[in-house]
Amino acid sequence: MLAAAGFIMIALIIILLLKEKMSPVAVMILIPTIAAFVVGTGIEDLSTYVKDGMDSIKSNAFMFIFSILFFGIMSDVGVFDALVDKLSAWAASNPVKITVSTAIIAIIAHLDGSAAATLLITIPAMLPIYKRLGMRSQTLLTIIAASIGVMNLLPWGGPTVRAATVIGMDPTDLWRRIIPIQILGVVLALGIAVILGLREKKYAIANVNLSKTTEVINVATQSAGSVNEKTDEKKEIDERLKKLLPVNIILTVGIIALLMANSLINLPSYYVFMLGTVLGMIINYPNLKDQNGVIKKHAASALTIVATIMAAGVMVGIMDGTGMLDAMAQSIINIIPHSMGKFIHVIFGILGGPIGMVVGTDAYFYGILPPLASVGDAFGIAHVDTAIAMLLGKNCILLLSPMVPATWLGLGLFDDEITIRGHIKASIGWCYGMSLIMLAFGLMIGAIAI
Fold first, then answer.
1. Distance between CA atoms of 440 and 103, rounded to whole angstroms?
2. Chunked in runs of 10, what are the mean pLDDT values of the chain (450 residues)?
3. Which terminus of the chain is more solvent-facing, meaning fewer CB atoms within 10 Å of its CB: N or C?
4. Interatomic CA distance for residues 284 and 395, integer angstroms
5. Considering only CA atoms, which of 31, 120, 49, 6 is closest in space to residue 313?
């Protein structure tokens, strides 16, 4: 009953989200709550499950609030305008340079292992350039998704830590076995960026009705100048803020550096953004009225995203607490024929993408991996081989799953321009294909034994 209720609940959530019939907040609170009562959960137990789910996401929620405030302030005072101008001057004539730059920025930004921080660093910096050149915003998000999927294999990345914990292995030891695969993944992510850049070059030229690269350069340069004029006029940046621009750039670089060095200094990401937000307000808005005004200006964006994250916490808490996750995992394992037992880790590596999108990261590693590793024992499959296969299967589609809060953060940063349905449709082929290539390479070099 638990498994059936869980599958029905997940199916309803996915259908409603893909068909865009209800907001994510409503879907991820209402449907799991109904499911909890259907399986006989009492009020006291439900309260415990919800609290546990909220505890698991509260640090992310805090980080999202202050990260949005921080980057909003830095955008208001012209930091990203300066960055956009530099990048536009370097690559305005070549969308391929823009897409490759996107991948490189995302790869470097994700060294701290935080998908949310990577999104918040890459999207505000690159989206204006895409807009100016007539490139599609979805291309930006697809490249970021591919880059995050590869970099999440680092030993401090969430999926690797989860997999290593389940099999009782040090994450660094697990990572050493997959370093060649991760290197291939980085190459694939850059390759995807090049291909999408070539496609966007044709798209941008078609949109502006140009046939010569030189004309594209002129239009992009003129567009950049007009946008800057509008921005300057709209924001009415005074001489004081212009003089503070170097200070704000240093502050932005410093906050990003702290995030990337998080594995060394061990400061909570939300605290880093808190410091950045406070310093940004004090430096640029010295009076209380202006400080309150800038908070109110960006509060709506922060509230929308955090509400969705909190709803996801409720959903995960209920699924975990009621036992639906474990029951669903066991049911999935039971459908594998006995004769295919020695290939079970490869099978789940291949199915890792679709399954991971449905059940979420915690359910995937904590619900499916433990019993699957036990089943593999009977066929002589080492736990580490099972863990690596499942890691490669799941990782590259991380930012496509509706069950991952960072997915909604990424979509939210585009101001409802991109839907979950459109994102999955546009990105699944690239990200899942990359996952399968990495899995095949792992088998070929012996990182995954059969």
1. 23
2. 85 75 83 92 93 80 80 78 63 82 85 76 83 87 94 81 79 85 95 94 62 39 43 53 84 80 71 90 87 84 77 83 79 72 85 82 73 76 90 88 83 84 92 94 90
3. N
4. 40
5. 49
Q: How far is CA 248 from CA 31, 158, 253, in A?
A: 44, 31, 9
Q: Give the largest CA-CA distance in the chain.
A: 74
How far is Cα 362 from Cα 162, in angstroms, rounded to an integer? 8
> What's the pLDDT at 324?
84
Distance CA 68, CA 73 (A): 8
Is this structure's pTM higher than 0.70?
A: no
- Alpha carbons 447 and 435: distance in angstroms, whole number: 15
CB-based contact 204:216 (threshold 8 Å): yes
HSE, CB side, 13 Å, CA atoms: give it for residue 11: 7
CA separation for the pair 142, 307 (Å, rounded): 24
DSSP 199-231: HHHHHHHHHHT---HHHHHHHHHHHHHHHHHHH
For position 236, what pLDDT does the model report?
53
Where do we find the tokens 């990261």? 361
24 touches 308 (CB < 8 A)? yes
Could you identify the residue written with the tokens 């990782």?
395
pLDDT for 206 equals 61
Q: What pLDDT is recorded for position 302? A: 75
Q: What values do phi and psi take at 57, rounded to 5?
A: -120, -5
Report CA dihedral (437, 443, 448, 450) to the nearest 10 degrees: 130
Alpha-helix runs per DSSP H in 22-170:
24-38, 43-76, 79-91, 95-109, 115-133, 137-151, 158-167
